[in-house]
């Protein structure tokens, strides 16, 4: 169904955020311990816009490396200067990191100025200019259109600019509507974009939190899912069970259609991602 994507080998990965407390670090260590036996291609670690998690991101990445799994730090450019990014890139290089997820990031309004970089494409160009082909660079893609893009066409054009700047692969914002992903991939094909576009998968744990977050990041929760979840009220067991069914089915459809892997947004817990993994028999 997606022949252009089927040409790429499948890549499975898990995303974490850097813990802020010693308890959070312990929890993440346990999560890593549970997910490592699945042998993902890499674990990625998010990076607070404006460099706010710089040290914690690096620490989490080093912990992952030490546990023997390839690590891919995220790096966002909004609020950053050329000098600060040169420093971060040098730090990653010195620790043997070869894989980055390059993003613009979002600053809460009224915090820092925009800095010297406006868009992720500027960051990708800058990384290539500074470090050549040292890093394998992932960028973000938005099958349902980034909330600040004025149209799907503009969304695609800006994605194409990131690829032209030197991105090797892409991870999507999460979505629950497989058709949006298929259409986006077809539009990318028509626009001559030929990098892997790996679906980002958000297991459903806390539905009200997910609803709020989805509104902000432009991910649509289909009405049939929303209505069912709302009907469960505080029945967390039913929310979890239904969420697992919906997301497992989505992943299954995507892989069958030719998606080149899956990237799980774990929220630093292993349970839901590993149940989905098991149901999909990805270790078989
Ligand atoms: P861009 O590609 O720069 O796009 C941002 C907006 O600008 C889009 O609307 C785009 O259409 C528009 N645009 C791009 N180029 C131009 C141009 N030349 N002219 C006009 N408009 C343009 N955030 C973090 O802070 N830290 C993280 O670690 C992090 N990890 C993420 C991982 C993934 C897989 C994803 C999908 C998102 C992640 N985010 C993270 C969130 C991300 O930073 C936000 O979605 C942000 O709003 C956009 O980032 P981007 O890299 O896609 O930006």
List the helices and strands and how they pair.
Elements: H1 3-6, E1 11-16, H2 22-35, E2 42-45, H3 54-66, E3 71-76, H4 82-94, E4 99-103, H5 120-131, E5 136-141, H6 152-165, E6 169-174, H7 178-190, E7 197-201, H8 207-217, H9 223-232, H10 236-257, E8 261-265, H11 271-279
Parallel strand pairs: 1-2, 1-8, 2-3, 3-4, 4-5, 5-6, 6-7, 7-8
Helix pairs in contact: 5-6, 10-11
The structure holds flavin-adenine dinucleotide.
Produce a short descriptive summary:
This protein is of the alpha/beta class and 284 residues long.
How would you sum up this structure, described in words?
With 284 residues, the chain is of the alpha/beta class. It has one domain (3-206, 245-280): Alpha-Beta Barrel (TIM Barrel). The protein has helices at residues 3-6, 22-35, 54-66, 82-94, 120-131, 152-165, 178-190, 207-217, 223-232, 236-257, 271-279, and strands spanning 11-16, 42-45, 71-76, 99-103, 136-141, 169-174, 197-201, 261-265. An eight-stranded parallel barrel has the order 1-2-3-4-5-6-7-8, surrounded by four helices. Helix 10 crosses helix 11 (271-279). The model has no long low-confidence stretch (mean pLDDT 96). The site of flavin-adenine dinucleotide (FAD) has 25 residues, from strand 3, strand 4, helix 5, helix 6 and strand 6.
């Amino acid at each position: 169904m997606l022949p252009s994507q089927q040409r790429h080998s499948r890549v499975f990965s898990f995303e974490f955020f850097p813990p802020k407390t010693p308890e959070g670090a312990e929890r993440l260590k346990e999560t890593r311990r549970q997910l490592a036996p699945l042998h993902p291609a890499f674990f990625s670690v998010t990076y607070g816009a404006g460099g706010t998690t710089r040290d914690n991101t690096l620490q989490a990445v080093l912990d992952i490396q030490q546990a023997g799994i390839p690590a891919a730090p995220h790096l966002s450019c909004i609020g950053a200067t050329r000098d600060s990014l040169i420093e971060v890139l040098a730090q990653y290089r010195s620790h043997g990191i070869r894989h980055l997820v390059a993003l613009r990031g979002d600053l809460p309004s009224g915090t820092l100025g925009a800095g010297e970089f406006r868009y992720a494409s500027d960051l990708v160009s800058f990384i290539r200019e500074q470090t050549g082909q040292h890093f394998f660079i992932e960028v973000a893609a938005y099958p349902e259109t980034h909330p600040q893009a004025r149209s799907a066409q503009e969304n695609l054009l800006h994605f194409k600019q990131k690829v032209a700047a030197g991105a090797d692969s892409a991870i999507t914002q999460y979505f629950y509507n497989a058709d949006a992903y298929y259409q986006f991939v077809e539009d990318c094909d028509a626009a001559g974009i030929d990098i892997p576009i790996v679906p980002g998968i958000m297991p459903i744990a806390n539905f009200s939190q997910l609803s709020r977050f989805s509104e902000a990041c432009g991910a649509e929760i289909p009405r049939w899912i929303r209505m069912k979840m709302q009907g469960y009220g505080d029945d967390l067991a039913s929310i979890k069970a239904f969420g697992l069914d919906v997301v497992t089915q989505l992943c299954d459809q995507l892989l069958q259609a030719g998606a080149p892997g899956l990237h799980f947004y774990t929220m630093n817990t292993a349970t839901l991602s590993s149940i989905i993994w098991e149901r999909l028999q990805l270790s078989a």
